[in-house]
Amino acid sequence: MKKHIWLLILLLSTSLLAAKSASKDWEIFLDVLPNARAYMEVATIWESYGAYVDQVEVRRGDVAFLVNKTWIYYQDGRLLSERNLRNSHRYDSLFTEYDQKGPVDRLPRQQRLPRSRDLLHAMFGRTDSQVRKHCVTMTFLNHEVNVNRVCAQALREIEREIYAAAAYDEDVRRFVEELSVIYSFHRKTVKGSRTLSFHAYGLALDLIPGSYDNKHVNWQWSRSFKRRWYSIPEDQRWSPPPAVMNAFLSHGFIWGGDWIRFDGVHFEYRPEIAYSRLPQSVDFWYGGLAARVGLK
After folding, report:
1. What is the tens place of the pLDDT at every residue in 257-277?
2. Same domain? 265 vs 280
3. In 10 A of CB 13, how many CB atoms?
4. Tally of domains in the chain
């Protein structure tokens, strides 16, 4: 039975087969991954970043990825280096961020934990100069952007789909024509923390339109004059046209407008999250796989 289960995992994650020097005994991972969710998350990490992984094996009772001589441990989705294992309780899973959607009636009482950047540091480096070596300058929607190579092809596909939509969708055409500026690679931290923004790795874009049409676009701006900013209805929040949204979301990006602390201009390359939320992935893991192994 275990062999059949793992064959399903291999079929979903083609990059898993392309690992440079991975263990051949894949069955050993079934003993350390506790449920269908864990299987899906490990597979999407492989699908998203397998090209950067030199080896994968069980270490310290966990699935571990060797990335540029650094072991990154799955740790229930936290993706931590060895030096952060003892502090795992201080980090949240990388896969929970997209679940925190707004608007809501009240803010969560529990303070948000940071998401580790250990995997990004292993792949792209920690300093500005190290990350720049992984970036490329390209034209996107008639604007020059500096982005990480890992998402450059996705952006080319997104641009192609947006231009195709603009040919018949007046809202998309106007959005592209009136787009004021696009912010990309920029060394900055997440507001109110010391955690580096995904802009600092060339993995985020802010698409600034010519006008926000008198709508709310960012929670920090809105909270200065609206006490219950987190409950602002969706029809009062600015967002790009649906075709633009769909193009980004279908190519590994997530949208900041979905978050409780919303940022309507922000798109972030998070394929490990985006792919795990696709309906076919959810159906496969929580339907087919879970039924076969009796997992939840």
Report:
1. 998 889 999 999 999 887 766
2. no
3. 22
4. 2
